[in-house]
Amino acid sequence: MITRRTIGIWGVGLVALGMLAAAHSFERLLGLDPCLLCLRQRESYWVVLTFAALGMVLAKIRPRRVETAQAFVGLGLVHGLSMAGFHVGVEQGWWPGPAACSAGAANLSGLDLTTALDAPVRAPSCADIAWQFLGLSMAAWNAIVLVGLLAFVGVRLYDLHHHDRS
Description:
- This protein is mostly helical.
- The chain has a single domain, classed as Bromodomain-like, CATH 1.20.1550.
- The chain has helices spanning 7-28, 36-61, 66-92, 113-118, 138-165, and strands at residues 132-133, 136-137.
- α1 runs antiparallel to α2 (36-61).
- The longest helix has 28 residues, at 138-165.
């Protein structure tokens, strides 16, 4: 049930679920294979969803502990923002990405199936921008969404803390 105490957890959880659905849609429907940093950004959303679910359970058992779960959701968002910001920096050439990010995609044309299955899989380069909207990459849009979610969590935590003291 959504209450004043749980609206923040529900809201962030739903947005995190939507962001994961969008990422998987880009991958499956548009054929945009994720790079290593893209996958790391997804991991942050799974952490956020885990703490959001914990917060929803705590709301039933110990309503005052929802703030703790929401604070951990905020930490998951901070991690996601750091990964998204790092990824944008790699895309813009501000700093190098991890060594595993620079391999580039393998060209499988002309290879037989056995050779292709035995060959190491190469992820797309983290420095290549696979998709843009309004001049911003997916990593940049992800960072924008995460800043908004962090602001929302901060406001909700302040409101809950301030409301409980008055």
